[in-house]
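Students often ask why we bother encoding 3D structure as a string. The short answer is that it lets us treat folding as translation between two languages. Here is a chain of 336 residues written in the first language.
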Amino acid sequence: MDREADKLETPGRPVRRFMVSRGAAVFRRLSSRELPPLVSDEYAGTSLSRYRAKEWSLVLTARSVPHSLRRFGTGWTIQVPRRRADEAALEITAFLNENREEALIPPAPRAPSNAAAVLWTLGVVAVCLAYLGSDSWIFGQRIRWDRLGGGDSAAMLSGKWWLAATALTLHADPPHLIGNLVTGCVFLLLLCRETGVGVGFFLCLAAGICGNWLKVELQGPGVYFIGSSTAVFGALGALGGLRSVRGFSGMSWKRALPAGAGLMLLAMLGSGEENDRIDLVGHVCGFAAGLVLGALAGAILSERKRPGAGTGGALGLAAILVVLSSWGAALFGTYG
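And here it is in the second language, the structure alphabet:
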């Protein structure tokens, strides 16, 4: 009997230490609460990142609130005594509010990339433009597209409105076409990233048409022009106008930065000698029209949400119908 008593009283007995340690751990769990769910229901069942857990721990340490960091799933959690749980939650909430962190509001989902859709659409456009750049035969009749749809300011002022659109689809030679496609690809990728494919191409076409009309009004009769460069720089202007309105809140000089960057690109890419067949007036008019249309679109569209698929599809279809109806009017007006 004495041997058994001595055996139980032997210091350092492993069974005793395990039982005491386990009992203390159970007591700590029963007398503490997890802090993240108390701060917000958004944290219920989720873990904190290592950085966020240490940040909250520093706040609690500064306010002398006892706590402990523990692993939870793939992250961390913080446990505080039950009697001070409400105090700890208030301290963390006050810290988040003071630092203007949107811990309770999930960030806006990142818009999926639509680069593939833009490139496929440009591929189809390139095929159509290449076809319009060559002579064709329809019902035995030779069609000279450049003569039917080329921009003629005198004809436009006399009522041939469709030439403002058809002139955008014609090019003098393959280098002219390739140059506009490459430059337009860059601008449209950036624009469609903000607005979606349908809205982006609609803004580009609308800016090109408005730019051609503005060019005709400024230069008057006696001007002939073809090429989609007006629409290309219209896309650049739309991007600058859109970001100027949506990019920054309040009145600030930063609002002018996107538009200013567009003007710099216009100066670098859109100027040249007349014998280089660079239509500077058309570039400026297209950019100005795009700037206005982009600003209007930025004022309508939400900052955190792009237009829905229905809106983008409707505007994309409208752009296609405008081009087809313009060419229909050109063909009917000539052969009708």
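Translate back mentally: Strands lie at 32-34, 68-72, 75-81, 136-138, 141-143, 151-152, 224-225. Keep this in mind for the problem set.
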